[in-house]
Amino acid sequence: MKLIMAVVQDQDSNRLLKALTEHNFRVTKLASTGGFLKSGNTTFIIGTEDIRVQKALDIIKTNCQSRQQLVAPVSPIGGNTDSYVPYPLEIEVGGATVFVLPVEQFHQF
Amino acid sequence: MKLIMAVVQDQDSNRLLKALTEHNFRVTKLASTGGFLKSGNTTFIIGTEDIRVQKALDIIKTNCQSRQQLVAPVSPIGGNTDSYVPYPLEIEVGGATVFVLPVEQFHQF
Amino acid sequence: MKLIMAVVQDQDSNRLLKALTEHNFRVTKLASTGGFLKSGNTTFIIGTEDIRVQKALDIIKTNCQSRQQLVAPVSPIGGNTDSYVPYPLEIEVGGATVFVLPVEQFHQF
Ligand code: NI
Ligand code: NI
Ligand code: NI
Description:
Chains A, B, C: InterPro entries: CdAMP_rec (IPR010375), N-reg_PII-like_a/b (IPR011322), N-reg_PII/ATP_PRibTrfase_C (IPR015867). Chains A, B, C: Pfam families: CdAMP_rec. The structure is a homotrimer. In chain A, α1 runs antiparallel to α2. Helices cover 23% and strands 41% of the residues of chain A. In chain A, a hairpin with a 7-residue loop joins β2 and β3. The interface between A and B is medium-sized, with 20 and 27 residues. β7 of chain A pairs antiparallel with β6 of chain B, so a sheet runs across the interface. The complex binds nickel (II) ion (NI) (3 copies).
């Protein structure tokens, strides 16, 4: 038995929860703020048998991996064009920080 | 030293906190959502000496164990009697998912 | 690799986050309530290499250690002077409860 603790961005949170649930993982979400990643994080607590740890890690990687995203330029409001960038910007989104912890006992009551 | 992480239903949360505190366990509650159990969960973090782990587990089991509960029938509103069940329903409530984790160091500052 | 879980008082939370970040620790904050300390707690999750565990503990101790604080007397409102204490009161604030947990795998995606 292992406990996987995964901190992911809020925007990937629902997709990750759906994917883990579809593969019958037991998941709890904790609200978290700031930290490992840009603000707006969710911490997942996943309890799983040793043999399925790699599958859970694969699902987290698939759904949360850090990647580049194009952001459309926003038109300046009120004529302040000093900082206006007239072409799409590439920003980094997503990412996950994952700990696999040993479990001495696991119970369901 | 062990760290017990217990995910329980919100409705059992106050009773569990009271019982653990009465038995001098050190407890922290984390807000959690969805997951192992039906939505509305609380995650308890309990730090305890090895010798008292079983006592903590007993208290969690006593206060949170999954059980059947009778729910009184709700009268239909607006005359829609199609799905009306005129006798009490038995539903499952409670339940706890519990991890006991090894602790390498414990400090109080 | 270790996972440090630290429960500290809200009033020390921002200072601790700043100090840990300045020393390049990866930190996630979880909202927590009641428990080990007086109500209003924050739980920090800190992932770190074994060699830097002591440094993290030093930073937590420096920023959160339990200490005495003088509280100025509050003038009674509405003439009820029965419980009025006309000199500063010394109360205990701060404090931290810290677990260091072993980590079997650590990943960043
Ligand atoms: Ni699949
Ligand atoms: Ni008792
Ligand atoms: Ni320093």
